[in-house]
Amino acid sequence: MEFTRRDLLTWGSGITAGLVLTPVPWKLLDDTSIWTQNWPWIPQPARGPVEVKNSFCALCPNGCGMRVRMAAGWPVGISGMQHHPVNRGALCPLGFGAHQLNWHPRRLRQVGHQGRACSWSDALAAFRKACAEGPVAIIDGYPDRAASAICHGFARRHGSYRVALRAEQRALLPYEKWSGVPAAALGYDLENTGTILSFGAPLLDGWSAPGRFARLWSVRGAGSADSQLRLIQVEAAPSHTAACAWRWVPIMPGSDAALAAGIALVLHEEHRTAPNAPVPSTTLADAAARTGLSVDAIRDLARLLCEHGPALAISAQPNPAVAALNVALGAIGTRGGIVRRGRRTEPLAAADTLPSHLRAVLVDASVPADFLASTEAEIFRFAAWEGSAGRNDWLLPAPGFLEELTDIPTAPLSSIETYAVAPPLSKPPAEVKSAAQFLMAVDSSIPDVEKIIHARCRQLFQSRAGHLQGEELAAAAPPESAQAFEKQLWSGAVWVGDPPHFGGIPCRLTAWPQSAAPVARAGWTAAWPAPVLPPLATKLYQESSLREPPERRAI
Amino acid sequence: MSRILMTFGSGFLAALAAGWLAFPQIAYRQRQQPLAFHHQTHAAKSGVSECKDCHAFREDGEFTGIPKIETCAACHSDRIGTSQAEATLVNDYIKKGYETPWLVYSRQPANVWFSHAIHVRRAGLQCSDCHGTIGASDQLRPYEVNRISGYSRDIEGRSSARLGRSPAGMKMSDCEDCHHKRGIEVGCLGCHQ
Q1: Is ipTM > 0.90 here?
Q2: Residue A289: which residues within 8 A CB-CB, separation 6 or more?
Q3: What is the mean pLDDT of chain A?
Q4: Residue A19 is nearest to which of B8, B15, B62, comparing CB atoms?
Q5: CATH classification of A111-167+346-496, choosing from 3.40.50.740, 3.40.50.300, 3.40.50.720, 3.30.590.20?
């Protein structure tokens, strides 16, 4: 019997009809769709015991408390620590996704010298040579850590120590100048403030410890018509903070000083200023003309500050006029105002102006990526990720997120002193070194980070001040020995100092300051250029209005 | 006409046979477990009566899964029997400090979050409801992995038609069916966190 073309087609039809009634097409479709969800090259978290560890974010000097979810010994998720006195369970978008940063494609893993790959021994030899030839400067972005003590100790012998201050820390510099109290010992008592007059400070957009104000606002400010905490945002642009504030006051760009002077003038006219507060020499009409507001609007603003106190003015940048307004409001050294914490007497030397004739400058990884060192000296730049601004002769790979032991000193603008220890939770790549390790290799007489932390813990315990606070410590008795105290700190507890001391900030401002600094937006977004963001933060960043273009002005 | 029917029918039957009998054999690759482990023997000799005696929960409710090598070493730090499997366990894993690379029949992919504690302690499910009678087995069957998806056959179900005892497998549809029957609704983020 001949097998014809017709038979072949009939047989094929039978196969097709039969296959439809088998699992073959449906199973292949299902398996293929599953395969596309699990590409072999997608990194998978390790399988193993899941545990949650307490730790602290060291990406910026605010040191927010975190609960790190670990799978098989690796961080796979982060949430805020509810009991932390500063962030109280809230985190910034970067913090929520920070565990992803260590796998960022722009992670630095190779020592580089002017674009060429080099070794650590080359970098060490070059730095030793520089130290022998002339003074060096060490620039730190996160002062008061144990690693900072190493930098400071090295700098004392070989040159000078400088700190790259952030915008919100700079805003306190006028008070340092007028009172002699170091800006690093000052903080905002936001927890007791009634009305905040923010001159462009992105309070709800990453200002200072982003979680601190976000939590305060959610508890005391958001959603109610007459909230306990009022935020009046003075800003030319309709920013995220302006949109969420209790009231937004759009003014002409750069007229913050004029508005501050106008408000102080109204307070003076109505006898509501603090004793001995300076009086601005301007007129209300002039302030109105420069700000674009009416005279009545400025009067209303001044009355709003007085009716729901304590009132506090905050500027994004150092602005002497805004600082003077705080003097007029009586917000210096008072409850809900600017308070002094701790016993620091020495101001931090800012890195804006470096000594001349430097042979080399070492920039720590804690210095923000957008920092530009104004020097002709050879620059040794530590960084965990690419993207550091300016000329870097030596680019040195530093440990990434939670890859090194560090202590967490008080957040810059906090009203209370805190201290915590963040042990490493991830193993760093073999090719990275911290600036402290680098300096210890140059000068072996410097004590290591662990010894300094140990000494600090003992010192805190012996001071008998403050108390420990933590997720697992709610019902625990205070530690009775220095070892127990240190053990609790290493396991995620936070030492919290005594409540802020009101008073103790002698203000010697006699005349209203004339100069005014332009307002610039700042926050975590400024310190972290967009390309180096974890996927989670990038998504949040892109889908929100965290950073409006500068040309988007209301006026 | 009869010739057409015969030709069509032969193709139809060939496809059915290939699809139902040959395809499941081709779709899965068999892999042998690293050791021959007898649940029944261990239960009888060690006096273990319940699954949780070895597959325990931690204090926080997390399931420990397959016991670690330390658990095996508690009895098998040295050979106590004569089997080749035990010799391999002692010499290749316990003495060298390596974990036994068991092939887990019911391992879910990484995008699934599953809590044994909720299902066993709160919902009162028996281990055998999902894992069958493996606890009473006298030998470990080969691990079968799908050549395309990479999933275990136990996840997709032993039966290609997904027939048989409920649940047919441990796929999302099986979870949904069980939840639906019990009137417990869980959103996407309940499992895909």
Answers
A1: no
A2: none
A3: 86
A4: B15
A5: 3.40.50.740
